[in-house]
Amino acid sequence: MGMDRLTQPQTVDHGTVGQLLGSLCVRYRFFGSAPIGNSVLGRPIRCLTFGSGPQCVLMAAAFHGQEWLTALICLRLCEEIGEALLTGERLAGWDIRRALRDRRIVWVPLVNPDGVEIAVHGSASAGEYADLVRDAGGDVYGCWQANARGVDINHNFNAGWHELQQAERENGIIGPCARQWGGTRPMSEPETQVLVNLCDRISFRHVMALHSQGEEIYWHYGEHTPPESRLMASVMASVSGYTVATPSGLASHGGFKDWFIEAHGKPGFTVELGKGTNPLPITEFEDVYQKARELLVISLLI
Ligand SMILES: [Zn+2]
């Protein structure tokens, strides 16, 4: 591409993601950006949008603090889409202007800004919850997955939440902690509510949730899973080499894609980007992105 990349490999936090969103909207005037709610600590959760077509797709990332790399991957995709729309050049073989003609794309690169701040900067960034976060391991590098008050956003959605809480208890998870506690009730957290409200306001044809790691695609949740979900997951797997997976154990309920499938009866996917140990090192960013690139592009067009 002709211009310098905005999304260079770098550790991203709430501030850098906000700057990148702003820069993308300046360079690519057809992008819009808006706050869609606030985190527990009042940090704005922002979306980037493109298009006004009837077919709406949501891609959301960084539900988990130590998975901040997924926010940068989401933003790199936005940048490549923006460049393809600006120049008319193909992206992963696709005529993007034509392929996105009937689409409205909403990206939420940072669902859990407080969690990412904690994962990157430690408990001092947790405001009034700094003591709780420190005691729960928030200063151990790579440990923090939850939001600022120790609730795992992807355990907090209203889909099998009581079964999930039972499983959490059996694993000794009974209160605020670094990962895998679903909170005191479903949808208790503002970050969860932001996505629920967004999906109630916009009728998404399908949603993509970006996590790391494992190079896997999850597509199934209960009897409301639409029949086309399996095929869509297979297409995404075939262009990436990722595995079509079935969740087990503590990943079985309470997630965003679980709730979306159950509440809206439309396809929802969790994609586990990259392979290794979280947080995936920034040196792997380009490799992870390149391997997932076609999957990510197709996930908006499919
Ligand atoms: Zn995750």
Structural overview:
With 302 residues, this protein is α/β, with parallel strands linked by helices. The protein has a single domain (14-301), classed as Zn peptidases (Aminopeptidase, 3-Layer(aba) Sandwich). The protein is built from 10 helices and 8 strands. It has helices at residues 14-27, 69-87, 96-99, 113-121, 130-135, 161-170, 190-201, 228-238, 256-264, 285-301; strands at residues 31-38, 44-50, 55-61, 103-108, 204-211, 216-218, 243-245, 268-272. It has an 8-stranded mixed β-sheet, sandwiched between helices. Helix 1 packs parallel to helix 2, helix 2 packs across helix 10 and helix 8 (228-238) packs antiparallel against helix 10. It is globular. The two termini are 25 Å apart. It binds zinc ion (ZN). Residues 63-64, 67, 154, 211 line the site of zinc ion (ZN).
